[in-house]
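ZP: hey, is the adenosine-5'-triphosphate complex queued? I don't see it on the tracker
AM: it wasn't, my bad. submitting now with these inputs:
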Amino acid sequence: MNIIELKQINKFYGEGNNRVHVLKNVDLAIEKGDFVAIIGQSGSGKSTMMNIIGCLDVPTSGSYKINGVEVGKMDKDQLAELRCKTFGFIFQRYNLLTNLKAVDNAALPAVYMGMDAGIRNQRAARLLKSLELGDKLRNKPNELSGGQQQRVSIARALMNGGEVILADEPTGALDSKSGERVMEIIKDLHKQGHTIILVTHDSHIAAQASRIIEIKDGEIVADTRKSSEIYEAAKQPEQITRSRIDALKYSFLESLGMSIYAILSNKMRSLLTMLGIIIGIASVVSVVALGNATQEKIMQQINSMGTNTIDIMPGRGFGDRRSGRVKTLKVSDSEYLSKLSFIANATPNVTVSGNLVYGNNTLTATLRGVGDEYFDVKGKDIALGRIFSKNEVTNAAAVAVIDDNTRNEVFANNPNPVGEIIIFNKKPLTVVGVTEKDNSPGMSSESMNIWTPYTTAMYKINGTNDINSITVRVSDNINSQMAEKSIESILTALHGKKDFFMINTDSIKQTVETTTNMMKLLIAGIAVISLIVGGIGVMNIMLVSVTERTREIGIRMAIGAKQADILQQFLIEAILICILGGFIGVMLSLFIGWAFNTFSEDFGMIFSTASIILALGCSTAIGIIFGYMPAKNASNLNPIDALASE
Ligand SMILES: Nc1ncnc2c1ncn2[C@@H]1O[C@H](COP(=O)(O)OP(=O)(O)OP(=O)(O)O)[C@@H](O)[C@H]1O
Ligand SMILES: [Mg+2]
């Protein structure tokens, strides 16, 4: 039975004037189990024919059948499968992968077959032992002699069964003794039932085959049969067919291993490639963390203005020059507002500057007349004593709460001034409480604040019922913007015109939030540019890597790697570089954050898990996007061209 049938095969190389006719109408049938030697002078087309038989190359015209199946109709993956399962290649220059140990080199075809790693390595070791390489399993090709390397490549050819062994000048690079040894092995394989096709220009070697085909200028000129020894395969060469899932899995693991190897064997280059990604990711994450910190700081500041409160001030706005003098707000406004259902309470505020006298000390201070809820609304905590009560507000009691600064300035020698009497603008006030030191930003640490009930400030100290502002606290569950609108229309109706303006802490909060979010987005967007630049760097290096390893790609394809396997290998490498870069970038930015937070008090970078996950996702995406093109290039290589590259 013919395992190989070539009919009217023609092969041309080149185009136009350079077009050469290398194989001319070749008809050839090779019987299963035969041992055929192809001889001819250099340049006669032996290798070309061999490569067509081994499905590494395609003929320009003609029909080629393996086991009766037309090869010309197969796609690239089916050809890869044929190379993987049916053929075993032995090359003149061994073509082992230099970074793999002997056993891994021999086992490689089984990886693409999907053979279990354990079984695979056992089988490779057994094959190598049978070729007297039992003590060289862990050696890399450069630690082996030429003859030993050729035996490793024979083991590799047999790994998946090697029904048809294609040997192109297997002894060409060997000394005569090693060459003889290799020929012994090949003759043995013939006896075990393998079909052998051997290319040589040495008639002495050809003489050991059963059939000798001579080829000259692309034509078969002689076909002599010396013996008709056909050996039945003692046992059918092992066919190790695995599920597609296993094949995917082992090919993935192989790719992962190779990628890690490739990255580690070019450490400096990998690191430099990653640098763009590292810087990009670190800046994105840090910028977001800084943005978070800024936002939080501003929020703190706004929160110290009170929660869910609306301040109503006289005048048209902060810029209104008259606003200090206009007194359009009245106590009655406040009283009116406090009766509204959507308002929890409203208190007038009165600000009086004046002299504070205690003992021989006279100081300038600001006194604020406020309601009893003021401390709660503004989030001011009491360190000593108490705040004044509702009753005291109603009765305009002569009591005062002072802040920490005032205590330090006025009562330097008295840590607990509760019960002491101070004189403000000639009016005595009993100190009933001291507030906690205020750390919120924007609070000048030098200003001294004294709070009394607004009634006291108005009637007892100022002597008028002018007020400076009204603080309204909106009831819970009421939308503060709605409340603001209602208050505006009510007060406008009461006054006959809008002679006031309002500050709604909620609106400010929202504005600040949207502004800082936009700033974060903007700066992060700029940082993303560096990520793109980094991605281009990765793409560049991957292109170099593919070029450098073209021969490796050719070898892998020759022993059965599919396009997808090659694509995957380079894609994984690119993704790995990017993920690693992303990881280092995140670490770097955490380190920056740590250093920053150690040196800066009360302002710390805040890292969000979301930004870190996003950053890692980004770097993976970059790996895929920028790694795809080089990987695709690699997988599109023609096996024979790739093999021929240096
Ligand atoms: N990729 C190619 N492009 C153009 N011409 C080619 C290509 N490959 C081979 N050839 C030409 O085809 C002819 C046959 O080459 P081939 O490699 O088959 O020769 P060979 O018989 O194997 O020779 P050798 O004994 O030196 O290995 C040669 O003339 C060679 O120049
Ligand atoms: Mg050749």
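AM: back. Residues 13-14, 20, 22, 40, 42-48, 201 surround adenosine-5'-triphosphate (ligand 1) (CB under 6 Å).
ZP: great, adding it to the tracker
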